[in-house]
Fold:
Amino acid sequence: MIQWHVGHQAYRHYVENGEGFVTGTAFLGSRMLQGEALLNHFLAWKTAEEWKEALLALNGFFAVVIKRGTQVFAAVDRLRSIPLFYGKLGTDVFISDDARWVKDRVGDQELEPLAKQEFLATGYVTGPDTLFPKVKQIQAGEFVLFQTSEDGHSDVFPQRYFRYVHSDYFDSPEEILHQRLQETLVDIFGRLITFAGGRPIVVPLSGGYDSRLIVLMLKKLGYENVIAFSYGKPGNKESEVSKKVADSLGFRWEFVPYSNMLWHQWYLSEEMRGYTSFADGLSSLPHIQDWPAVLTLSRENRVPTDSIFVPGHSADLLAGSRSKSVPDLYSGQVENSRLIEALLGYHYNLFPWLKENPNLGLFFKDRVKATLGAPSLYPDPSSAFESWDISERQPKFIVNSLRVYEYFGYGWWIPFWDRAFIKFWSRVVPENRSNQSLYINHVKCLERELGLGTDKRWAGNVSPKEGIIRVAKKILPKQVNKIISTCLNVISFRKNPLQIYGRFPEEETRTLLKNGYNSNGIGAYFYLKQLTESFFPERRF
Structure:
């Protein structure tokens, strides 16, 4: 028997009937599908082949479960922006948007030990697995066919319909590429504007290029109902840049101050506990960086209740930002072992597992290989490196931050995961993605067009201190860099621009910092601890 369950109606709009349920929004060409129209669109598909072809044709963000006779189809979009989970117990299969409901039905009680170690190292569990052995998740770009036989036995058949792979590279001069990119941006922001329908668009505006490109395009296309916001320790550089960009474009700007004391209060609140249970999917470290900001904006009525939040995830990745960390993967062919080493170094780095348990290396390598697939799928190492990130880290660690907006009742849209934007960058050669050269030049051109690129004091510059640190990272040995990073983390306990270390007991946090855990590693450590015990003592600052 196959059962499905909708558990998060409080946070998203669902349409459900006896044949299934759907949530989200998709575009088919220029036609926007939501609610019953989207459900009816899915109901027309009957075979696995139809599902694969039809899912590829859709552009948007959704999750769906549809019953067809003895079969049930469940699917998420290319990026798993809205997660679905399932589990099997005997002849029964359970499907839901709520991982805890599935966990209770399959009777899981104990964390899977190796999944726990991977979570500590990355902040998420890779592949179809979660922290509990019988609870599975539908992967990005995947649909799952559940088939019930005559004797009542149910089988599970996952099928990948999308994987990010570079191909069909553009053979055009840079001038033409800029023209193509601008046409692509107009196209995808046109869809955002259609989706927003005049409602306020709220942009978490940092000092980086991605969120800046969002407000630039909205200004260029004449969408004026825009609110930008920033947060952190008062006077932090990111917020100063954010305000200058918003003021220059004539958009309203809001700021929410953070402190260690406030973080402690927020983290112990009932709202945070409720959010964690909703957002983690028993597989992802809940994103909380802008949680207090959205909480404050909501409580103080500083953004309207019908607002659409539009974060900048993750134009930089598609445009080649990873080339700064692994330049050799973008400059030619390397051995497959180097690719695996690069993936481990970049993603499995939240705690010093090589020092604490070096035997984990073999397990982590196997996990990376299993989720990466055959190296022959990819035209070059940079494509493989980016594809793994887009299949694993982006949906489970970065884009899962959308749960923040849902928790407080807001809509969202992620324009840089529009199909057209993905397709454009999949056709750009590694040389034009190296150091994000094409992308950054394009944003700077748009800044100049809109009168934003004249102040060199804040247009993407770094401070002398940051410049020294960047140079040191390039020229000093890895071990020396690790020691320096650890020292800087310990020193920054109270000076951190987000004041984020205030969440946890100070003494234990300082010990973890000294032992080489980074901020997200500490978050993963305490999250796992919180699953089984109450651990926050009373303390003073």
